[in-house]
Amino acid sequence: MISLTSAELNTWIAAFLWPLTRIIGMISVAPLFGNVSVPARVKIGLGIMLAMIIAPTVPAMPALDPMSLQGLLILAQQLIIGLSIGFAMRITFAGVEMAGEIIGMTMGLGFASFFDPQTRARSSAISQFLALLTLTIYLATNLHLVVLSTLAQTFEMLPISSSFLSAGGMLEVVKWGGRIFSAGVQLSLPVVAALLITNIALGILTRAAPQLNIFGIGFPITIGVGFIMIGIVLPYLMNPIINLIQEGIVAMGRITMAMTPLN
């Protein structure tokens, strides 16, 4: 006859619940997995499946009641860790979307915007195009599997414990957030440079021939040059985008290590 004590049952529940919380936190925020078009049932099912695979390999955890105050504190900490590493990957996609916003505004397509259900905010057409391109590269190069592998490694880098997390992890998240602007400028620079030269040429042309209607010819020329430059630059964007995503994967590990308790 099999008999279980309440302590053993609590240990089994905690051994599955705490890793599941970190995994669900990452899945709810990370690109592709956290997309609002993915049903919540699918996200939870994926989280449970990953937890069943990862939980047996997790280092020894505190023998605490998951419903006790300390158990709930550990639960909250695992959620924070999962959200932080998922947000680190989301920043890489935000950097590409920032590049699209810069290109769109420079081309004069700032008005060509619509509601983005992912961010629940206004998004330009160029930004959405680059975001879909990045997602395609993300899937084609199997970097989404690398993200899941890094998630599993975080349980080795930062084991589940009752110790308080270090504030250095949040500082690393803030530092990594600045990559949105630098990545956006770097990816959009070729198109912006070509459009700057175009605007300078139009300005010189207006001074040389004031009778020209600059508003009538400048707008189509600027949009045309912008699309031509996007077509020229597009084949060369794959490596920078892959490097940016790989930086995000490295940032996931760096943020996890920075959260290691001091004691």
Automatic annotation (TrEMBL):
Membrane topology: Multi-pass membrane protein
Record keyword Transmembrane present: yes
Domain of life: Bacteria
Protein's UniProt keywords contain ATP-binding: no
Annotated transmembrane regions: 12-32, 44-64, 71-93, 129-152, 180-202, 214-238
Listed Pfam families: Bac_export_1 (PF01311)
Swiss-Prot/TrEMBL keywords: Bacterial flagellum, Cell membrane, Cell projection, Cilium, Flagellum, Membrane, Transmembrane, Transmembrane helix
Subcellular location: Cell membrane; Bacterial flagellum basal body
Coiled-coil ranges from the UniProt annotation: none
NCBIfam families attached to this UniProt entry: fliR
Family the entry assigns: Belongs to the FliR/MopE/SpaR family.
Task performed by this protein: Role in flagellar biosynthesis.
Name the UniProt record assigns to this protein: Flagellar biosynthetic protein FliR
Lineage: Bacteria, Pseudomonadati, Pseudomonadota, Betaproteobacteria, Burkholderiales
UniProt gene name: fliR
